[in-house]
Amino acid sequence: MTASSDRVESKLQVPESAASWEAYRPRYEALLDTGLTAADVPAWLSRWSALNAELGETGAKLSTHADLHTDDEAAQGRSQAFVAGVIPPAARMGQALTEKLLAVPDYTPAPDFALNYRRFRDAAALFREANVDLEVTHEQQKNRHSVITGNQKVTLNGLTLTIPQARQQLDSPDRAARKDAWWALTVSNMEAAPQLDAVMLDLIRTRQQLARNADEANYRDFRWKQLDRLDYTPADCQAFHDAVREEAVPLAGELVRGIALELGLDRVRPWDYNRNNLLDPSGRESLKPFTTGDQLQTLAQTAFAGLDADLAARFGQMRASGLLDLESRPGKMTHAYCQYFPVNNEPFVLMNVVGSAEDLRVLFHEVGHAFHGFYSGDAQPLLWNRWSPIEFVEIPSMAMEFLTLDHLDHVFNGEELARYRRNQLQGVVTFLPWAAQMDAFQHWLYAEAPEDVDIAALDAKWLELDRTFHPFVDWEGIDEGIRAKSWQYYHIFQVPFYYIEYAMCYLAAVGIWREARTDPAAALERYKAALRLGNAAGVPELYRAAGVEFRFDRDYIKGLMEFLKAQLA
Q: Residue 338: helix, strand or coil by DSSP?
């Protein structure tokens, strides 16, 4: 084990005594038994917030440790025991404390708590006792997905690789090598598909029951309230799907077919299309700016130093404190995310790097989330006021992908930097069709599909949507059952209805970058000011603070596509 991994393991250790409900029950009960007047509420809220932070951090550390060791039954057991033994009584106690707060006569929340006070009221109305234990089942089902995908292996050219290591080969300029890698990944995915189908059917039934228990017509309506979506409607999302089909899909097709033409390809096959990193039109090897996770950290540290001294210091703190686990290895979940440990206001980034330029972009993305945690945690003492509504939460991460573009001279030479920037801009265009497809699939699944929907219907719907949003990829001669399984994606299993936010925030991030090109210092200050507002402000206010509009209509998308097209030209 390296010194870096030792620091990570140390950071994630949880005493056995902290992993049981008894470690928290007496203090929650004391809060419930406290006499409460309007004047007492601020101090009482502070006590409740601190206790929630302690409990939440324990769960976050156990969950993250389990994700780093999907092949460790003991790590999985500790995390699942916490979910089953602590989360249900904590949820019940949270409802009781919420009802106590809402019953305080003559209480008027302070301006910085008014929004969350309303959210408390709405969440209390959605609460059902029957859903407490059902949510445990829901988490256990999602964990099955993590274990299955975290233990996937890919056999390629006689080697056994992790999923991220095999995906790296999709960027090869050698078409035959790309094709071999694509088929190796496909074999691995299709072997896991029956298990994931079973998990998905269980999740659908559980989610339908959560909605019924809460007297909602369907899971989309339930999730809409659970996610506190008040600033837009399902109809607005449908309009977004239509706008992407009309404005972004043609531009994506133009970009992809143009590259294929320059490479002399007769058509764009699945192994010729990676939405995160389009092929180089000159047939050059993909950019590989580093080899190890430690090298990536050093490159990023210099980039942040060029952008802002305080951002660099925050990243340095993460490096020194064991808050980064970047290397890809067997038994580690294949996704990337930023976790949060609220007691000491510490974000934690998990990734699976393999040396690509895409890894550099993803690190800037996840550390952007970390900056959000740092700044909102510094400015907002109450736990509920940290971070932000999910419609804003991807702006800190996606904007950081753009704000670092002018601070990478130490990573790339001039020609390489131009390629990296071009990939970044192309990535926005090619991401929008994928985001619209992901969102449209879930609207259908949870609001339109029959209650007894089966896997064949899921596959068929995905095929229909993929033909709509990715018509420029030619699947001729390939079993449609392979294409139909692309819905087996992390967010579909783990965070339902959390995907259109990426598109909203990508559009906003482009807007922030557009402003930064004329006044970088002002754009960065607005960025940091918006992060400090945390969850104490609504979605439109947060966007305004960052210097952009909360819009994702067709005219707005059309304008940004024209801007990106001009930049790419």
A: strand
- Write the DSSP symbol of residue 361: H
The DSSP string of 405-429 is GGG-TTTS-HHHHHHHHHHHHHHHH
In degrees rounded to 5, what are phi and psi of residue 154? -125, 130
pLDDT digits 0-9 by tens, 231-275: 999 999 999 999 999 999 999 999 999 999 999 999 999 999 999
Percent of the chain residues topping a pLDDT of 90: 95
- Alpha-carbon distances, residue 237 vs 240, 250, 274, 447, 553 (angstroms): 5, 19, 25, 13, 9
Per-residue pLDDT tens for 46-92? 999 999 999 999 999 999 999 999 999 999 999 999 999 999 999 99
Q: What share of the chain is helix, strand, coil (3-state, %, to 5)?
A: 70, 5, 25
DSSP codes joined into one string, 515-537:
HHTT-HHHHHHHHHHHHHHGGGS
131 within 8 A of 213, measured Cβ to Cβ: yes
Check: CB of residue 79 under 8 Å from CB of residue 31: no
Residue owning tokens 């030479």: 413
Dist CA 306 CA 408 (whole Å): 9
Q: Residue 504 CB: number of other CB atoms within 10 A?
A: 23
CA pair distance 218, 216, nearest whole angstrom = 6
Residues in CB range of 58: below 8 A, 6 or more apart: 14, 18, 19, 82, 86
The 10s digit of each residue's pLDDT in 324-356 is 999 999 999 888 999 999 999 999 999 999 999
Q: Which two tokens stand for residue 555?
A: 């005219």
Whole-angstrom distance, CA of residue 55 vs CA of residue 345? 14
Domain extent listing, the chain? 3-142
Residue 3 has what pLDDT? 67
* pTM of the complete model: 0.91
Mean pLDDT for the stretch of residues 477-495: 97
Of 433, 438, 432, nearest in space to 398 by CA: 432
Q: Rounded distance, CA 457 to CA 463, Å?
A: 10
- Cβ burial of 377 (10 Å; 0-12, 13-18, 19+) is buried
Assign 321 a pLDDT band (cuts: 50, 70, 90): very high
